[in-house]
């Protein structure tokens, strides 16, 4: 089966592009928007609509495969590729990527994805991570359609992985609506919640961490009130380096604070993402490792999740090699082709580090569903409900795709068993 044509259509994401530099510099909320001038190149406003591009592959037999190019909310920040706008990048896909794919035999996801991943533009630059991300999704879908199997099965076959017929815990993020959206996640029985968006010391963490501590106490109480005795979600909170800021990166003071958080969360397990931002990759590795070791020495079981300065596959390898965290967030769009997400999960697991197939609220339904197949095949510790910040929509997309796929795979396994039994004598 061959690819006979490549199309591209502009789309929207489930959230927005935000100018992180302008927000950190004090841009104030104006309803859902922000006041002030943008500071990051390419932005026309501090917050603007998220854009995507659907890459559509037409196959020889009339089938159609698709994947969505999308970039993270804070594009252009922290060493990431620049703002991804559809009208700027559709011509690149049609004029430069399409000729590489038309006529290709759909015999191997890895071969075709790597063909795009390792290609360079006529000016010698690599293709934007969002392009590599979306094109690789479309290739995976196309190979699955050519072979008449699920995308999960393509990954299992090509990476020689065992089939595990169990769901992967889904992580819901609340955004700033951290109370009502936490209720939604609890009512839906999400496996992991709430993210929380604790990105300001004064208004969200508290100068001595008191606001977050109160929030954790509320979460523990709310799970008990709205859940049942068998529901024990993991609490996973992203603090965007604010704990380090509040406690001036003093490890002993941070450990004392983590002990308070653990007590407040009990009996629920707690993870803290991005406790500090050291300002460099090596600094982040060293500080996270020091905090992790100090927590274990005190017998505190709160897990540390690496996010800042851990963006690419190579970064994830380095953090895992250094045992700098209990878990790494694998931000799918930042890694380019989804084959890099697959490799990152497998590498982290090999070294005993928790793998979290994350990404961004600023993705699409297509990207969320593709991530489900990556997760089912590679079995990370958790995956993100995406896109969006509303909980209901992102959780529905990911949860339903996971259950559909598991039902198909269970049926196939049952059919194999029945077929074997029929010929046994």
Identify the notable features of this structure and list them briefly.
13 strands; TIM Barrel; Enolase-like, domain 1; about 425 residues; three-stranded antiparallel β-sheet; alpha/beta; eight-stranded parallel β-sheet; about 45% helix; 2 domains
General description of the model:
The chain has 425 residues and is of the alpha/beta class. 45% of the residues lie in helices and 16% in strands. Helix 6 (180-187) packs parallel to helix 8 (210-226), helix 10 (251-265) packs across helix 11 and helix 13 (338-350) runs parallel beside helix 14 (365-378). The chain is globular and about 60 Å long.
Q: How are the SSEs ordered, and which strands pair?
A:
Blueprint: E1 3-18, H1 20-24, E2 29-30, E3 33-34, E4 47-59, E5 64-69, H2 86-101, H3 109-117, H4 129-147, H5 151-159, E6 170-171, H6 180-187, E7 192-195, H7 201-205, H8 210-226, E8 234-238, H9 242-246, H10 251-265, E9 270-273, H11 281-297, E10 303-306, H12 313-321, E11 327-330, H13 338-350, E12 354-357, H14 365-378, E13 382-384, H15 392-422
Parallel strand pairs: 6-13, 7-8, 8-9, 9-10, 10-11, 11-12, 12-13
Antiparallel strand pairs: 1-4, 2-3, 4-5
Helix pairs in contact: 3-4, 5-14, 6-8, 8-10, 10-11, 12-13, 13-14, 14-15
């Amino acid at each position: 089966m061959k690819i006979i044509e490549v199309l591209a259509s502009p789309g929207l994401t489930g959230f927005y592009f935000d100018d992180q530099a302008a927000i950190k510099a004090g841009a104030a909320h104006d309803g859902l928007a922000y006041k002030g001038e943008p500071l990051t190149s390419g932005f026309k406003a501090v917050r603007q609509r998220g854009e995507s591009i659907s890459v559509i592959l037409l196959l020889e037999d009339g089938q159609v495969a698709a994947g969505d190019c999308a970039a993270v909310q804070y594009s252009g920040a922290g060493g990431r590729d620049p703002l991804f706008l559809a009208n700027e990048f559709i011509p690149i896909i049609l004029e430069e990527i399409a000729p590489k794919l038309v006529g290709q035999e759909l015999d191997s996801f890895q071969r075709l994805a790597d063909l795009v991943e390792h290609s360079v533009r006529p000016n010698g630059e690599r293709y934007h991570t969002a392009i590599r991300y979306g094109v690789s999704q479309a290739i995976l879908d196309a190979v699955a359609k050519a072979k008449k199997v699920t995308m999960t099965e393509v990954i299992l076959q090509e990476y020689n992985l065992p089939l595990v017929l169990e769901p992967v815990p889904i992580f819901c993020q609340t955004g700033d609506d951290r109370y009502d959206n936490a209720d939604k996640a609890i009512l839906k029985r999400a496996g992991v919640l709430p993210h929380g968006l604790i990105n300001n010391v004064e208004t969200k963490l508290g100068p001595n961490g008191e606001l977050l501590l109160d929030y954790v106490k509320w979460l523990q109480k709310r799970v008990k009130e709205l859940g049942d005795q068998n529901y024990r979600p993991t609490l996973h909170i992203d603090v965007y380096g604010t704990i380090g800021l509040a406690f001036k990166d003093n490890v002993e003071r941070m450990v004392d604070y983590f002990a308070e958080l653990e007590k407040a969360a009990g009996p629920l397990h707690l993870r803290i993402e991005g406790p500090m931002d050291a300002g460099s990759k090596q600094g982040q590795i060293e500080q996270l490792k020091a905090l992790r070791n100090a927590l274990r020495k005190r017998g505190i079981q709160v897990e540390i999740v690496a996010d800042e300065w851990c963006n690419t596959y190579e970064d994830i390898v380095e953090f895992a090699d250094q045992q700098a965290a209990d878990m790494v967030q694998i931000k799918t769009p930042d890694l380019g082709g989804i084959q890099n997400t697959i490799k990152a999960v497998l590498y982290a697991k090999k070294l005993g580090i928790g793998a979290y197939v994350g990404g961004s609220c600023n993705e699409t339904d297509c990207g969320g569903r593709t991530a489900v197949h990556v997760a089912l095949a590679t079995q990370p510790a958790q995956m993100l409900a995406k896109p969006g910040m509303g909980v209901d929509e992102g959780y529905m997309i990911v949860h339903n795709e996971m259950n559909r796929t598991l039902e198909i795979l269970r049926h196939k396994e049952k059919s194999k068993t029945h077929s074997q039994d029929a010929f046994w004598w």
